[in-house]
Amino acid sequence: MSHASMMSIIGAALLSALTAAVAADPAGGPVRVFLLAGQSNMEGHAQIRTIDFLGEDEDKERAALLRVFKPDGQTLVTREDVSVVSNGAFFAALQPGLGARKVAETPGSKIGPEYAFGYFMGQALQEQVLLIKVAAGGTSLYQNWRPPSAGLPPDAKPEEYGGMYRALLANTRDTLRNLQTLIPHYDERAGYEISGFVWFQGYNDMFDPIMRREYSRNLVCLIEDLRRDLDAPKMKVVVGVMGINGPRNEIGKQKEIRDSQRFVNTVPEFAGTVRAIETAPLLHPKVLELNCPGSPPDGIPQPGRWLYPERDIDKKPITPEEQALLGRATSDLGYHYFGEGRFFILLGKSMAEAMLGLMKAGR
What we know:
It is globular, with a radius of gyration of 20 Å. The protein starts with a helix and ends with a helix. The protein is α/β, with parallel strands linked by helices. The protein has eleven helices and nine strands. The relative contact order is 0.17.
């Protein structure tokens, strides 16, 4: 699907949702709006069933989070004080299933970072919270998300660059124009505030040296341009540093992208308003050991085969118990963080904590 087509679908889905209503009666004050953007891992490819693995965590505080999301041990929570527009489809209440899905208007079987991020933002803030998520797999910052001030590469066709950036602007503006319809309790006098932007992306830029070299500059331009184009100069920004295959993958192309994302922490103009956070440590160590074992055979590097040399998978194959653990914990491949629901709960929580920290410091 072209990104022009995606923009059209996003707009149509949003318009079809304008008769929906939020059941909660929010506290006074502006609606707190948070933008979430990126590629497939912002969409979210963790099957809902894998959230339960969180309860097996060796860290007791993390394990206890399962009760936060399943207070009765059976049903995952929803929040009526948090509403979501996800790729154009409006949902009056935050709920599981708003990750990647085939039908935009229907919750599916997956989550992304929006679920835990929205939960903890709703818990911390008195005002109504609105998440606007625009994400698409296979998109790069260099091309699809390219912001205007980054300019165009030589001989580039303008219509082939920046489509997702324009989609995010259009989706956000359409949503904000229709808040009175989307949120019946919306107080026009209080209005809304675009409080934050969360970025989780990087995989597709990793495979081209020019894309890697330009990434930090393009990310700075993305933040600056969004603040300007949305008239939100104080918008706080959280960047999730790409963590595919975990904390040991600080090598080669992956490290280049990670360092380019960490660069925003060094920009003087961003001090106190932008923060890049680490995501790699949030992956479960046993999942990493079982998926990225061994040393490269014959000294020839293979993807993931050098990260856990202490586990020789040929001499010590995966046991039935370990296979069962992977069945409970994972639902996808490594570039989707193994579809580990536990990871996406911890990721959303970390993003929310970083965002709330920036908001508190900026008061």
